[in-house]
């Protein structure tokens, strides 16, 4: 066994399962891939005997449900797709501080992040093209800004950042990096016929069918899964940088059984849990657990540098402006 994996296994076992005397129920709200959330719940229940009630949806809907239930909260643990959503919940005093050093020190350096929670994995946001449905005269783009050219008119989709966590982090960080140039970019995409139909899944479907040629801001795990299934799509990592977005797992301040919630987080961050994260096409956080070969190896493509605390501070205002100016809502 890899020495790092062995070390963290022993540390997490001592944290996770000491003192569990009888079965209990944990409620998990998740914007992780639904299959991953359910697999983690099954594996945890099998190991501990405790039941995990799972509700899965998009990050936008998870955040909306948490807000609606603020006076009578139900979730014990929450997994979302974007780091800024976690920081927003923490700012609102909804998150219980749980980032044990015994786990954090064994994460990949890029995953050792400031915050009262841990990253259960990470995903990319890049461009995806259907190689069999390119517009006449078009070549594969190499830059985010290539997609505003006339040749792409009425040929692109994008996920709605009000629903998709990864898309929201992309929009917020893109605005942080490029300022007014970013807003002009989104306006140009809109003028060029780009549509924002819904979640990542909803935006990807017209590309897989060939109805549309490509997708801006496509989440990596969905694109990789579609490619593995034989679809004629190509992931493109823009020269300005692909966004690598850590995904938080959080214990809610309102969780009545913090120890049970900690045990679930510990299991998710253990080698067994991280292998499930990798199985469902995310980059695992734990050093010593490899991503699937279908994922491009980190370091082989440029990544945009993001100050997550800085961009989180503008989350609400940027998304409100996007809703009004780009989506027209």
From TrEMBL:
Keyword hit for Signal: yes
Protein name per the record: ABC transporter substrate-binding protein
Statement: the UniProt record of this protein carries the keyword Transmembrane helix: no
GO CC term, one of those recorded: outer membrane-bounded periplasmic space
An annotated Gene Ontology molecular function: thiamine binding
Organism phylogeny: Bacteria, Pseudomonadati, Pseudomonadota, Acidithiobacillia, Acidithiobacillales
Alphabetized UniProt keyword annotations: Signal
GO BP, sorted A to Z: thiamine transport
Pfam families: SBP_bac_8
Signal peptide (residue range): 1-23
Classification via InterPro entries: Ferric-bd (IPR026045), SBP (IPR006059)
């Amino acid at each position: 066994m890899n020495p790092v994996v062995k070390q963290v296994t022993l540390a997490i076992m001592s944290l996770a399962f000491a003192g569990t005397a009888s079965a209990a129920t944990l409620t998990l709200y998740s914007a992780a891939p639904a299959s991953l959330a359910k697999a983690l719940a099954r594996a945890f229940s099998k190991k501990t005997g405790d039941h995990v009630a799972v509700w899965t949806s998009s990050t936008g809907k998870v955040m909306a449900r948490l807000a609606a239930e603020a006076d009578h909260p139900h979730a014990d643990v929450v997994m979302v797709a974007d780091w800024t959503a976690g920081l927003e919940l923490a700012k609102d005093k909804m998150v219980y501080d749980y980032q044990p050093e015994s786990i954090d020190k064994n994460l990949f350096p890029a995953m050792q992040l400031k915050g009262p929670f841990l990253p259960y994995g990470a995903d990319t946001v890049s461009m995806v093209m259907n190689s069999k449905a390119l517009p006449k005269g078009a070549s594969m783009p190499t830059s985010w800004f290539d997609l505003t050219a006339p040749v792409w008119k009425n040929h692109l989709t994008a996920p709605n950042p009000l629903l998709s966590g990864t898309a929201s982090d992309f929009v917020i960080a893109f605005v942080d990096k490029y300022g007014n140039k970013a807003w002009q970019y989104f306006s140009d995409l809109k003028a060029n016929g780009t549509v924002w139909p819904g979640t990542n899944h909803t935006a990807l479907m017209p590309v897989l069918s060939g109805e549309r040629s490509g997708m801006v801001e496509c989440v990596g795990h969905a694109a990789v899964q579609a490619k593995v299934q034989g679809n004629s799509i190509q992931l493109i990592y823009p020269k300005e940088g692909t966004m690598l977005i850590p995904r938080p797992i959080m214990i809610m301040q309102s969780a009545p059984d913090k120890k049970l919630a900690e045990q679930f987080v510990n299991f998710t961050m253990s080698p067994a849990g991280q292998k499930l994260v990798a199985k469902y096409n995310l980059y695992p956080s734990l050093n010593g657990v490899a991503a699937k070969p279908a994922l491009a190896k980190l370091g082989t493509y440029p990544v945009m540098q993001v100050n997550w605390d800085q961009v989180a501070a503008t989350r609400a205002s940027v998304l409100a402006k996007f809703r009004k100016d780009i989506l027209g809502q």
